[in-house]
Amino acid sequence: MMLKPSIDTLLDKVPSKYSLCILQAKRAHELEAGAEPTQDFKSVKSTLRALEEIESGNVTVHPDPEAKRAAVAARIEAERLAKEEEERRIKEQIAKEKEEEGEKI
Prior knowledge:
Elements: H1 7-11, H2 17-32, H3 46-56, H4 65-104
Helix pairs in contact: 2-3
């Protein structure tokens, strides 16, 4: 059985077979976790879908993985801070409403 897409066309897209393996595994996990696909697929399995995306050039190895990690960490921190701020505003609103309700009685 031939692997489609072929390993030769895939190795033209990534620097090494090890990078290809890691990229395929990470993308397959993302697809299984519900990530938005970048194209229509011929394959059913997520691992082969990841290879199809790599072959088409929709998924690539990031040129600076440290910068990507830092950007992801910064995004996660910003989301956490936004959630905390929203919770604080909600708690203040609830306290304000309780205070106004106490004055009416």
